[in-house]
Hints:
By secondary structure, the protein is of the alpha/beta class.
Amino acid sequence: MNILEFSQKFPDEASCIAYFKGQRDLQGVVCKRCGSREHYWLEGKLSYECKHCHSRQSLRSGTVMENSKLPFRIWFIVMHLLTCTKKSFSTSEICRQLDHRYQSIWEMCNKIRDIMGKGDNQYNLKGAIELDDGFITIEVPDELKAEPRKRGRGSQNKTKVLVMAESLPVEYPPKGKKAKKINHIKMQTVKNLESQTITDIVKEQIDEKADLSTDDSTSYVNLAECVNTHQIYKSSNETTETVLPWVHVAIANAKRLLLDVHHKLKVEYLQYCLNEFCYKFNRRYFGGKIFDRLIVAAVANPSDFKSKIYNRTLCG
């Protein structure tokens, strides 16, 4: 949905409220007190009243907009901006476009990215899976700034990310194309690359009937018990090109996105940006429907995001 189509579909606050209510009615409203699904709609208060116990809940209650006082149209515009491009918009740019204060928009963007992650977490990766780890540049945490700067994998300005990608072999790939076709991906930040940490994530994110391919890192020694098969390949340039091509493409694209859009990103907010990257990648063929799917996720999921000490360098 381009900007002209968005403006025609949602010209004012009333149109946004009507669309949001329509999506919530489709999913059904459940009374928090008695569990009833029968409600009156109170137009003047934008609330539902239970027909049985007469308790009320607002239109925003139980959604990503819960406890927010910002207009529905502001939420819709931000969700449109985050889904209308393959890359993203920085919080600072959205603030300039909306002429709004930074803190409110920054929290809104992270809440939206949080429900993007919840949408992807409803599904496990299946079939042939590539798995590897990567390191993404972040702002050095305050407690580590006094330490001498390290280099390489142990650097204080690097954080570890586990990357998983569904990739199926292509029998006759076109000339110059990869021998595998990518489907869905997942990325998750990890505190360490210990075997138990990786094993727990694989159990949670990958189907037990999947066929897994990794390099020969000691972090992956126990993965055979979590999946149907686990193929281990000696780490080399050939392995990167032929066996694990797409996890490296995905992590390279994510790094470029973060460098282009987000500056001085703190480690505790990196997962939200990765959620957005994976959400849009996994729905890259949806076209304008990606906005509608995000609205459905927004209606169905409250955000768990909690703002910490405010700092403009948290997420640009």
